[in-house]
Amino acid sequence: MTISPLALPFPELPAVAGVRIGIATAGYKAWTRADVLLVELARGTSVAGVTTRSRCPSPEVELCRARLSGGRARALVVNAGNSNAFTGEAGRAAALAQGAEVARLLGCGEGEVFQASTGVIGVPLPAEKALAGARAAHGALGEADMAAATAAIGTTDTFAKAAVSYAMIGGERTALVGIIKGSGMIAPDMATMLGFIFTDAAVAPELLQDMLAAANKQSFSCITVDGDTSTSDTVLAFATGSGGGAALSGWDSPGAQAFSAALGDLCGQLARLVVRDGEGSSKLIEVRVAGAVDEASAHKVAMSIANSPLVKTAIAGGDANWGRVVMAVGKAGEPAERDLLAIRFGEVLVAADGAAVPGYDEAPVAAHLAGDEVLISVDLGLGQGQAKVWTCDLTHGYISINADYRS
Amino acid sequence: MTISPLALPFPELPAVAGVRIGIATAGYKAWTRADVLLVELARGTSVAGVTTRSRCPSPEVELCRARLSGGRARALVVNAGNSNAFTGEAGRAAALAQGAEVARLLGCGEGEVFQASTGVIGVPLPAEKALAGARAAHGALGEADMAAATAAIGTTDTFAKAAVSYAMIGGERTALVGIIKGSGMIAPDMATMLGFIFTDAAVAPELLQDMLAAANKQSFSCITVDGDTSTSDTVLAFATGSGGGAALSGWDSPGAQAFSAALGDLCGQLARLVVRDGEGSSKLIEVRVAGAVDEASAHKVAMSIANSPLVKTAIAGGDANWGRVVMAVGKAGEPAERDLLAIRFGEVLVAADGAAVPGYDEAPVAAHLAGDEVLISVDLGLGQGQAKVWTCDLTHGYISINADYRS
Q1: ipTM value
Q2: Would B96 be classed as within a structural domain?
Q3: Which residue range(s) make up the domain with B248?
Q4: At what angle do helices B322-331 and B309-316 cross, to 10 degrees?
Q5: Total-model pTM
């Protein structure tokens, strides 16, 4: 697997108090790499989460949803290589058994175990391998770091993706660390691929959920690789409270705004990392829409552009084909007036007043498109609604990966 | 340009009384092929039409919409190589000038001239070329046949697409002939690419419009190549009344039902021809959805499957990846219950009751996928809603065509 040309180096991550990591090889595929991650979390850890809106979710997603209502987590277990989605009773039984085994090993309730699986759809998680893998990862707790954890949850990912942000709470610097995987079947519907966030801040579960939902709306819900929404999308945030800092119980707690901002920053970083590893991607594309009738409308228009195969192939070819942007605005089904549109590539205005700008010079636009980060801005000229989304280009690499790989 | 492996031979077409065809080379691109089509229609010809729902339509589309209210046509003029979309005042003026020139040449009202253009977006139609082309095509009226007309309206099309159907009206056989172009930017939104239908039946304009709208709903609105909706989609039906048959004035006229059925048949043939020439296509895919809560819901689920890049690349790779069909059902945003889904490839049931069928044998499915026509059937198990749509697979050919071609 060739590493994405948009890959970023793995960041230096601070330790998060209250978090212990173990990895193991269950052998979900014919490989020797680690494919089970177990994270032990301190007693009293708060948890929040967002999951796929797919009508066909995996049993792990259903278990996460059910357990999130408790607000507390002692463990996270992740299987890579098998998503366990659409696997009926056998798959559900295997997921339950693995969760129960982790609860037994850690001496906690099953409702405090959070599970996620990623990989091929339709093959039941092999229960024996899942149990043995969980036991082995438990035996290795404390031996692995976040880099190893990130590697253990990847599938078609071409590089390990993690990020960090900081918030000042009561004069103390608190770290938020996130890891994420995903490179195809990416169009999270108010949810996302698999992403896990750890902090040793003390945050009440309801507040953490509010903050995560808000961050999700501006990050994971604003990216798309191929417009295809996974059956397994899950983002969980864990706050262990082991850092010794002041507790955040509500939005008016000192430091809550700073923590929320840091969480938003972290989610944005993680989301863009996923796009940077979009299957076959060679360019990171930011689409900005302004002047829409409202924010929801701006988001839909931006997603229509970001999901258009013709726009994405044009960018892949370095072609300043703004006509395809017009097309994508036109098909979005949202209020738009052809003769009010203004379209920019990078900082250059290319079309306005229903036509190309007079004396349009393609040279600076071509230079912008030759880079590996492309900005497309559209002003609809109707109102104050704005949105920003991220996607990647559509290349031969996407076809090669997906005409062969059984996801 | 390689001819699509799904190409069909050009059919034998009967003459349509009241129709005279001329073609010419305006030179919209650096080529010597004919790129202007003029069709002269008998006085009193009825016209009906459906056009794109894009919010950014071309001036030709706007003119067609305005003129359709008159219900009568004397001429059709089509330019290939330049869509004249998003070209502001200059583009609109050029379209008006070409229409006026055709009206002058034929001695009819401008409101009886129907126009369409296809090709690159954002370059104003060059007025001098458009006028010279229209005059040359007028001078050549009667010299060209439907095959030449079809060739003259093509752009990235790899084969000429036409079809014929027949209706018995008052004991007489009446022919309906259709020609169509389009191979990318195909996701007609209750409308279509450029398609033109000719018959010498006598049909009242309002009835023809009703029939075309009904046929469109089951044909052009049920195909997608890439989910991208053109700014120029137009289908026009012309009934010259020159055949001498009984006039169809309403749904209860003898022969009206037969004519409507023949029109529906013709539109279905034309729509599937477009999919057969979908950019880079190597397989024609029919998606059937049954058991939805209603017809609209079935259509949305079917389109979600037909537009999924992961489903389309799997079919390109001959991979019986039904998990991606589950994914596409799940993301459609329509009522669906994971454990009620049944999925078939060809005639073979592959998944039901929330899992792969017991003893699933992939061999007959692989054999079906090796052919060039693939059937995917999904039963949602909820209600009586059904839909059928057509698409093609997604291959390297699509990327090659669109990362280079300026559409």
Answers
A1: 0.81
A2: yes
A3: 19-276
A4: 160
A5: 0.84
